[in-house]
Write a structure and sequence with these properties.
Structural class: mainly beta
Distance between the termini: 17 Å
Order of helices and strands: HEEEEEEEE
Number of domains: 1
Number of strands: 8
Radius of gyration: 13 Å
Low-confidence stretches: none
Largest sheet: 8 strands, mixed
Number of helices: 1
Length: 120
């Protein structure tokens, strides 16, 4: 049975940052929610494109040659293999859409790696 998903309710259910939560799956893709605050690590996803959709706040996505700023209701697709770094000057809530195999830190690893994100 299919059920609707309320993004606001799901986002209210957790407070930790840089820890994506899976809310849906389709065709081998995960739909995730995350809260971000501060700078993430520079990384790339060799085999996966990644979609960022800002729900609340303002997100900067740094590339080596420019920065793209996203506000609520705006999205950006980062193509596979492109090095990037999300930066949130204050807390941001966002939706991510990416293949289920995508690791948030790409090939970089480190203490912010979430290899098996929690379903909420």
């Amino acid at each position: 049975m299919t059920e609707k998903i309320c993004l606001a309710e799901k986002l209210a259910s957790f407070s930790e940052t840089w820890t994506p939560k899976v809310i849906a799956e389709l065709n081998g893709q995960h739909v995730k929610l995350a809260k971000l605050n501060g700078e993430f690590v520079w990384h790339a996803h060799e085999h996966e494109d990644e979609l960022f959709l800002v729900v609340r706040g303002s997100l900067e996505i740094d590339f080596r040659v420019r920065t793209v700023t996203l506000g609520p209701g705006e999205l950006l697709v980062v193509p596979r293999g492109v090095e990037h770094r999300p930066v949130a000057q204050s807390e941001v809530e966002l939706l991510l859409f990416e293949p289920a195999s995508t690791v948030n830190t790409g090939e970089m690893g480190g203490d912010r790696t979430v290899a098996n994100p929690e379903w909420i």
